[in-house]
Amino acid sequence: xxxxxxxxxxxxxxxxxxxxxxxxxxxxxxxxxxxxxxxxxxxxxxxxxxxxxxxxxxxxxxxxxxxxxxxxxxxxxxxxxxxxxxxxxxxxxxxxxxxxxxxxxxxxxxxxxxxxxxxxxx
Length: 122
Hints:
This protein has 122 residues and is α/β, with parallel strands linked by helices. It contains 5 helices and 5 strands.
């Protein structure tokens, strides 16, 4: 499964890339830190899955996803964030096709479990 990682923290991005490199069936085809870079990368690579940080510097994950959807891409998306996700974010995420929200503070286990299930079902 081709994956793009969008994460503005260099440390967290490195952790994700290293962890995904060890996951059978996962192939990271690119990583981005900011909104414009992420949109260009996703449109170019057309991944099966995007791991998307919600609050980017610069930008916002929902804007990335909105632009990607407007470009006609329907890749699967898992959102990662350290912020409290209120109902408004969940509703907006559902409108944009987010499959799940993951709290980075809770560790990567649940996120990776979702990625593994997606790989198994691909």
